[in-house]
Amino acid sequence: MTLLTVDNLHTRFETNDGVVRAVDGASLTIDRGEIVGLVGESGSGKSVLARSIVGLHSPGRIVEGAIDFDGVDLTDVSASTRERYRGTDIAMVFQDPTATLNPVFDVGEQIAESLRVHDDSSGQSLLDFCHVPLVSDRSRWRRHRERAIELMDQVGIADPEDRVDAYPHELSGGMCQRAMLAIALAGDPDLLIADEPTTALDTTTQARILDQLRELAAETDTAVLVISHDFGVVADCCDRVAVMYGGEIVERGPTDRLLESPEHPYTRGLLSCLLRADDGRDRLPTIDGTVPERFDGGPGCPFASRCSYGTDDCERRDPAVRTVGPDHEVACHELEAVRADDSPAAAGSPSESTPPGRPRADPSESVTRDRARADGSRTIDARGRSGSAGGSADRGDPILEARGVTRTYDLADSAIQRAFGDSRTLRAVDGVNLAVYPGETVGLVGESASGKSTLAKLLTGLEAPSTGEVRFDGEPVGTVADRTADQLADVGVVFQNPQGSINPRQRVRETIAEPLLERGWDSECRRERVRELLDLVGLAERYGSRRPHQLSGGQLQRVAIARAIALEPRVVVFDEPVSALDVSVRAQLLNLLADLQRRLGLTYLVISHDLDVVRHVADRVAVMYLGEIVERGPAERVFDRPSHPYTAALLEAVPRIDDGTDATRLEGPIPSGVDVPSGCRFHPRCPIAEPVCETDEPDSVAVGGVDSHCHFAQQVASRGVTEDSESPRDQSPDPPDTTTR
Amino acid sequence: MSVLEDARDGDGAGRRQVGRAIVGHLRHNPFTSAGGIIVVVLGVVAIVGPVVVPHDPTTQTLQNRLQAPSLVHPLGTDQLGRDVLARIVYGARYSLGIALLVTAIRVVIGTGVGLVAGYAGGWIDEILMRLVDIQLAFPGLVLALVVAGILGPSLRNVMIALAVVGWTTYARVVRGSVLSIREREYVAAAKLAGTPRRRLFRRHLLPNVVNPVLVIATLNLGTVILATAGLSFIGLGAQPPTPEWGTMLSDGRNHLRSAWWIVNAPGVAIMLTVLGFNLLGDGLRDALDPRQQTKLEEV
User: Fold this and answer.
1) Chain centroid to CA A597
2) What is the model's pTM?
3) Chain A closest CA to B20's CA: distance in Å?
4) Where would I find the ABC transmembrane type-1 domain in this sequence (chain B) (predicted)?
């Protein structure tokens, strides 16, 4: 039963620089109760397609094609008719829930508003809106409010009666996204479009939101279109997947089929970019090049310029859509050639000419880039890392160390509040010890608000610890203002959001040269070094004279990396280096990080909520929860046999394209650092919590080289991740929410 | 690589691109271009006008007094027989010069206070901003009146009075921007690179607050011209025989019935000038909108 048919849709934008063909002949069908995924990199036209369906494509114009929704062609009706469809029949959820919710109304009011809009056409009188006592019609208001509570319950918001009065800033990102979902569902839509619904969220939250979507589709027979750049997300919840590139659907089919036997080179490329648990530390396959800013709209396959199978024919003729299996269609000229190249991982790019294995352990290459330092005392040579990763024998002294570091924030807003003794403090980082040894990569993982970024700021000196000390090279160091020029030069930092970490008013060249300038390099040396750095991070020299807005996110992050390594630091701290980027760009950047470490002998501290990224890069890993490190140890050990239930839960929440197992979901949001739970901080959310967890703070337990702060570390470790998660006790206080597909 | 990116490779090509974007903006916004034209014409008049005009603005020829517009005196003469056109043209110099100078002083004081308050925070911020609040508690023109009254009537004192009362807007806007910019990660990165505070201000904070300041300044020019004329009108500003528009209005109001041109000429001049600056300022605000930055940020 087909609900929506998009047929040969063309949406174009008129810009000062010419016509941009954002959607260029895309076709798509969605049945009732079905979840369809739409996958592609940034700039492939996914969002414009979605917006064309709901009629929010302005200022673009639909120039050709049809959108058939339940028998009505939406491109052919008046604006007011389309408006009636929006919300009642077609609803949409956007990427950033905190930006989509109106901050001045409580959540219940916003859900009720959407109910009112769809409830009756008479509209709402100003009196009702203002809740004027005695005059307003309160019964309707009450009815809507009750319905809002029902909806909030339906989308999985705990305690909806309390939360209905909460304002968006009082809720976590995941809660806000659920509220958005409730608003979307208020009109009881037939079709729900979710545009990157989980991209702004934590892995644990993402898993639960995706579960929710799946349940809703099953319960209410609502069709869902999930848009994402991450194949993992889509694979986790969709029945069918469409892959989009250059405004066209290049391949579509059932999810399982697409994952098992992808046909189009682009699909293969996207899939191969994903990090897998069994990847080890190998070089990641990537898709060469980037999505062009615009497509000229001539004939030919849009992917031809980046495709390793591309022929002249691809650039001249539009590829025909071929059916290659049940409900599985591909638009590609060179299918035979692609198929001949059997392994999907090898598709897409000649960039993996680098031999497989562990390229960064290859010492011969590192010598070629050996840069003699002024003092000559530092070893640039990257050493074989596998030996030093686990044992502490040959690690020497730590370069960067946090000793009992605590950072608290005073929450009292004003002197008056402080004077009246309202002195609540937030413990962002609480007594953390962390040491980073030369040549290794330490990963720091945890959900948002676990204190990872604050710890990074303390280590780099952007903030001062409340108690404890940060040591560099064995010497206590203060904040940035107190550090010597040498100490500053020895620590590089790369931030999460490349757009925010680069001054929009400076040219790339000036941004990279900034640390050099402060170090007193003259302009000739600076120019030379910038040229070297651009080359090192894989950017052409001409990028030096560009402005940040002319670069893509991945390119900007390369610039940020170049700036961080400009003075040849010994340690580089990465705060979520790839979280804001597409999967294909992420793979390229992770390869770059590995190359740089090998060439320059760098020490890394990588902070991320993405466990796959940390697993890929880290030798040792520390898991942070509510300001404390709950588990630490060699990366493989921690990820393969986690000995803390929090780590286990984090691992299970990662969307996988290669497992279909039911997972234990971590319930509830991370508590606030103001009211820290007693005993073990994790006990309110822990699936295996016992009474002792509430009262006693667990000591550090060593389990096979891993340091774990859990009363039941041994049991957790022996259970493993993939096994069925059975509690040591049957009635755990907070039972895990087990969902089935 | 797209066509667009290729075009931006060379610096010259990049500038052409930006130039085209500005032209595009002007073409789509006739009001902005009208404002721009008025301002440019006014500037040209102020600079070369006095050389071209045949009459002297202060020479009294009593036998020619109160003559209606004619070929010899296109805008007529005033009650002392001075050519009104000449006085308007010379007056443009005063008006524009005062407006630019006063606005420049306002921008410098306001931006300085805003930068320091926003960046330093704490009690410095508190003191500076309360100062601004106190200042804002008085209506601007009334305060300027008081200051000019105390200092005594003269053009210089009017400028001092107007500069003293008008900087608060800049201080507030700049402080607000700095509060958000100083938390940006590029500022953190600069600190990590060891950038001293002075250079941090010059390279990272100042360039990023220029846009709003530029817009307010343009809109401010019109207000200052109006305020100067107002103060001159009530006799606190330019003293006769200075050909200032406000003074001319004041002089001519006694002859409103018999010689309409004496009042109308400076009145229309003031109106057009203020209109021009306002239109240009509105256009600039749209053009410098963050969403337009990709096209116009190099302006």
Assistant:
1) 23
2) 0.77
3) 9
4) 92-281
